């Protein structure tokens, strides 16, 4: 039996739950919530489990047939990659979402990677990314640019995070600028 879960109910699901229950088809956004707000809420609820397991969690933001927003349940990925579950046929994929896992001294994770941008471009979608420092990023998959929606601490933050190790973080980058980092 499949059912639709509201974001309010999804936020009550334990953050320590490693994988989404198989019987949840999509998570619906509350009426009136914007795509950016919904992506942020979706990622923020995954931050703690992402830190605890040092894994990326990912999925897709969707547009339902009735025009409302929804999301696929998060998939548990690897330390630096993740493959989201496919969206039901009747939904339009509008963006990807994924966490960047736990803070690590030797892994630059406070900005999107070249692979993040190229993956969204290849899928023909935009993307949203959360970082161990609690930053929230938007990936424009068509323009190949990334923009920081909000900075350090605007979302749940890994307790082990140390600011400054990735150098100065700009508010936006082109794909070419990311390649130079």
Give a short summary of the structure.
With 181 residues, the protein is of the alpha+beta class. It has helices spanning 7-12, 35-53, 114-123, 175-179, and strands at residues 3-6, 24-28, 57-63, 69-71, 75-76, 92-99, 126-130, 136-140, 145-150, 172-174. Strands 1, 2, 3, 4, 5, 6, 7, 8, 9 and 10 form a 10-stranded mixed beta sheet that branches.
Fraction in beta strands: 25-35%
Kindly name the structural category. alpha+beta
Indicate the low-confidence ranges by residue numbers: 1-24
Separate helix tally: 4
In total, the number of domains comes to 1
- Kindly state the percentage of residues in helix: 10-25%
Element order: H for helix, E for strand: EHEHEEEEHEEEEH
Distance between the termini: 47 Å
Written account of the structure:
By secondary structure, the chain is α+β, with helices and mostly antiparallel strands. The chain has one domain (3-179). 22% of the residues lie in helices and 27% in strands. It has 4 helices and 10 strands; from the N terminus they run βαβαββββαββββα. The chain has helices spanning 7-12, 35-53, 114-123, 175-179, and strands spanning 3-6, 24-28, 57-63, 69-71, 75-76, 92-99, 126-130, 136-140, 145-150, 172-174. Strands 1, 2, 3, 4, 5, 6, 7, 8, 9 and 10 form a 10-stranded mixed beta sheet that branches. α1 links the parallel β1 and β2 (24-28). The longest helix is centred in the first third of the chain and has 19 residues, at 35-53. The N and C termini lie far apart (47 Å).
């Amino acid at each position: 039996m499949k059912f639709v879960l509201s974001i309010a109910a999804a936020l009550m699901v334990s953050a320590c739950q490693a994988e989404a229950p198989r019987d949840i088809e999509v998570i619906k956004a509350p009426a009136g919530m914007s795509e950016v707000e919904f992506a942020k809420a979706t990622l923020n609820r995954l931050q703690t489990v992402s830190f605890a397991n040092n894994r990326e969690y990912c999925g897709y933001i969707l547009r339902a047939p009735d025009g409302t927003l929804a999301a696929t349940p998060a998939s548990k990925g690897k330390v630096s990659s993740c493959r989201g579950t496919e969206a039901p046929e009747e939904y339009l994929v509008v963006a990807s979402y994924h966490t960047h896992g736990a803070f690590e001294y030797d892994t630059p994770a406070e900005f999107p990677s070249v692979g993040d941008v190229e993956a969204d471009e290849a899928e023909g979608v935009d993307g949203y990314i959360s970082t161990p420092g609690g930053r929230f990023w938007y990936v424009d998959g068509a323009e190949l640019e990334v923009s920081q929606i909000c900075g350090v601490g605007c979302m749940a933050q890994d307790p082990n995070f140390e600011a400054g190790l990735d150098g100065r973080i700009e508010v936006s980058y082109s794909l070419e600028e990311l390649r130079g980092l």
